[in-house]
UniProtKB/TrEMBL annotation:
It comes from Enemella dayhoffiae. GO terms for molecular function: acyl-CoA dehydrogenase activity. This is Acyl-CoA dehydrogenase. Keywords: FAD, Fatty acid metabolism, Flavoprotein, Lipid metabolism, Oxidoreductase, Peroxisome. It is found in: Peroxisome. Belongs to the acyl-CoA dehydrogenase family. One of its GO terms (biological process) is fatty acid beta-oxidation using acyl-CoA dehydrogenase.
Length: 316
């Protein structure tokens, strides 16, 4: 470490370093500069050098023992030099002196640039990524658009019917994604339960957690088989004749996903609201699936109407 009270001119030797910087930058003003130690360094010393031309940064080792945790300055300089011009935001190194001829130790000088601090993001409210950002949906505004009659697809006013023809098979994809999210949430739940201890024993040994895991497996498999049956109906009878089965899986798959993901969230505790695990975004997307392509209530109405039409009255 550098002894307290050491003069900066002893550490930096402006009479030697100044001309070297002036030669490297082509700016004579650097023959005369002031220096300020940047606080917070753990071992190697970092100075802000100021002249009438602006500010630069100089890095050098301390005068005393170098801590084992100190960065290898020669490696720093090599990496920064190699990254210059690649688009990676690093300061450009203007001067390196590995021999120690000026200060008795190696040093290098680089540009002073604005730093960018990158931290893990804790989402507020509905966590990112949102369903629209995941799948690239956008709001499109048609202003002053005229469509020639010869470019019309189908008849006037038939757009909803065309959309429904696409949405029927598309809903089974939503259901499959929901099953996948539920399966992933269960895997995370099990992993957490087997590694987290509370009240003196693993979560996996707690009765309520075991019930969460068991119920999740039962419900996921029930929903998966219902989706498989719906897929068979579409393959064998077409989407129109499978409309009730499509509505059924559109209701049950996201509902099961929400339930299983919510159980996993409970088991993860506070970690559930961070991006360290995908549960928050899973839940936001699964809940959104209960609205997109028709909310649950609309699909339940479709199922009920079909059941009321095709189920004969009970005759005792």
């Amino acid at each position: 470490m550098t002894p307290a009270g050491t003069r900066f001119d002893e550490l930096l030797r402006p009479d030697r370093v100044g001309p070297r910087i002036a030669a490297a930058t082509g700016v004579l003003a650097w023959t005369d500069f002031t220096a300020e130690l940047i606080a917070g360094g753990k071992s190697n010393l970092t100075f802000t050098l100021t002249s009438t031309d602006g500010e630069l940064i100089l890095r050098r080792p301390p005068t005393g023992k170098l801590l084992p945790s100190a960065h290898d300055m020669a490696r720093e300089a090599r990496i920064q030099t190699g990254l210059t011009g690649t688009g990676v935001p690093v300061a450009t190194i203007l001067l390196t002196e590995p021999s120690g001829a000026d200060l008795g130790v190696p040093y290098y000088v680089m540009e002073k640039v604005v730093g960018h601090v990158v931290r893990d993001t804790l989402p507020r409210g509905t966590p990112p990524p949102t369903p629209t950002s995941q799948h690239g949906h956008s709001e499109i505004v048609f202003s002053g658009v005229r469509v020639p009659a010869e470019n019309l697809l189908g008849g006037v006013g038939d757009g909803f019917a065309i959309a429904q023809a696409r949405l029927g098979p598309g809903r089974i994809h939503h259901a499959m994604r929901a099953i996948g999210m539920a399966e992933r949430a269960l895997a995370l739940m099990v992993d957490r339960a087997k590694s987290r201890t509370a009240f003196g024993k693993l979560l996996s040994e707690q009765g309520v957690v075991q019930a969460h895991i068991a119920n999740s497996r039962i419900e996921i498999d029930q929903a998966r088989l219902q989706v498989l049956h719906c897929a068979w109906m579409i393959d064998d009878h077409g989407a129109k004749d499978a409309r009730f089965e499509i509505s059924a899986i559109k209701v049950i798959a996201p509902q099961v996903a929400c339930t299983v993901i919510d159980r996993a969230i409970e088991i993860f505790g506070a970690a559930r609201i961070s991006d360290d695990v995908p549960l928050a975004s899973f839940y936001a997307w699964a809940r959104a699936l209960r609205i997109v392509d028709g909310p649950d209530a609309v699909h339940r109405r479709t199922i009920a109407k079909g059941e009321l039409r095709r189920t004969p009255p009970f005759v005792g």
